[in-house]
Amino acid sequence: MSIPKERQMEMARTMILARQFEETLADLVRQQGKIHGMMILATGQEAVGSGVCAALSANDILITNHRSHHHLLARGADPKALMAEIFGKRTGCNKGKSGTLHLAVPEVNALCTTTVVGGGPPIAVGAAFAQQYENREAVTVCFLGDGSTGEGSVHEAFNLAGLWRLPVLFVCENNKYAAAQSYREHTPVDSLAARGAAYGMPGESIDGNDALAVFEATRRARARALAGEGPTLIECLTYRWRGHGETDHQLYQPADEIAAWKKKCPIDRLVNTLREAGALGDADLEAMRATAAEAVADAVRFAEESPWPEPQEALDDVWVA
Amino acid sequence: MQKLGMGQAINQALREEMERDFRVFLAGEGIGVGIHTSPLMPTTGLLDAFGPKRVKDTPVSEAVIAGLAVGAAAAGLRPVIEIMFNPFFTLASDMIVNHAAKLRYLSGGKTAFPLVVRIKSGAGFGAGCQHSHNLEAWVAHCPGLKVVMPATPRDAKGLLKSAIRDENPVIFIEDMGLYFAPGDVPDEAYTIPLGKADIKRSGTDVTLVTWSKMLGVSLQAAEQLAAQGISVEVVDLRTLTPLDTDTLLASVRKTGRLVVVHEATRTGGFAGEIAAVVMEQAFAALKAPLRRVTGPDIPVPASPPLEQFYIPDAGQVVAAIKEIL
User: Does A148 touch chain B if contact means CB atoms closer than 8 Å?
Assistant: First the structure.
């Protein structure tokens, strides 16, 4: 089945937006010192968020992790509300309670971002259970990293999802590093996708820098889930260009390795494919970049102009009254 | 009025809430087909009544049982999960402490996690310390969790129904010893609000604050002392968080003396919190230093005489009260 042109254009648009959003964040943190706290970016991994989200429906649920900007932007979260949250402002999507690391955007069914590595999959199992329980025409997508697959909770979640044939897609972004550990320093097997078999679910390893391949894999897995055939593990092979966080010196990442992966930029790849197909001209691309730049500039302006929360607002939102 | 054990009262609460609201489902290890088929156990018969869609026997996987509850609650259901023994809570604790308790706050109040974690607890079974370890103070220390510890079948039923209807995560800790002690339970439907203590015996000379199984020990001590002309007021907290400070402080202001009794170990136990609240807000009313009667700071031992040594008894409560009279 071919991928509708509109979907392909959407992927290009959201990847460019995520890249510009994160490059701006890096600058705000490193050069301008305007953002307080940790900053963990997914630069180079944009095809995963965009490819997955373009294949979803509005009622599908997203559970994501500390490297979530590209997922949430691809899902349609408001860049202004995200940026204000990252700045710690009252107008942020979580009123300054989450910061960059735990962004929750229920408006787009991104119900939870957890920074506890391995925390997402058990929760995704619960969300998928709710979908199955109420026969909803929807699936849950859980983004996890290669490093999380060493956590016991991930294996418990895989097991229950397989056992109950839950409509959940475990999308593992294998970006080759878990903090400072390279993949083969933390995992004894070459393929994470192979682990699906141990839990009765198909595991598929794909080029995570190819948004169209990510889209196709997501579409297949989603169809399986909706048909009652249970979960799928999709391993997206990709690479993070930047460190674990913006204070990371990246001494463990060989410079030539980074350079080689930059040549495999997921945005260039999709843009070139669209150009070759005659679907995207220079003017279209420029317009796409300009629109993204404007959205990011608007977001930064909105965040900077927004008020800080009053200190005592820290006491709000613990309980449902 | 019915005579039911606490497990049977809990069973009724689960039944009624499942009949009332399709979003309520149960999950846990051996809650449907279990190794104990006694009618006194809390989930006996529920699989037959509601079927495997709503009564979910899970693998031995506490982390994902708790994650199931967190995710299902976020997505609109009202899970009630069971942790078979209190020490196994540690295996579920990331999902409860880092997620159920915090995700609403992290969302700025946009999400809610209406879930109940039923935990079977208490020493006295000869099972040793990896099956017996009262951890209520751990969960009471986590903002975002309500903590309920009923002492009677009547309270257990009414409190569990409120817990299931609550929009917040509730930790509901059941002392298994209470499953086997029958008590009065009203025939008609009722709920008991969370956060309200109950004066189980009125008195004027000393306030005994307690919860869960130690209510029985406290009432025994009060009875013994009544024969000696000492009037003990027994306050059953029922809910640790939110804490009913009004009832607690009113009682202490009336009697001027306080003894707190819990089965959990002493250091960092919830008696310390009760003591601090009273010292901060009713110091002037105290006529004597307060006392704590608790388990000693040891893991729960297995051998019968050792285990009995661990569990506080009425004699210790009587002695503590006499020290401050």
Answer: no
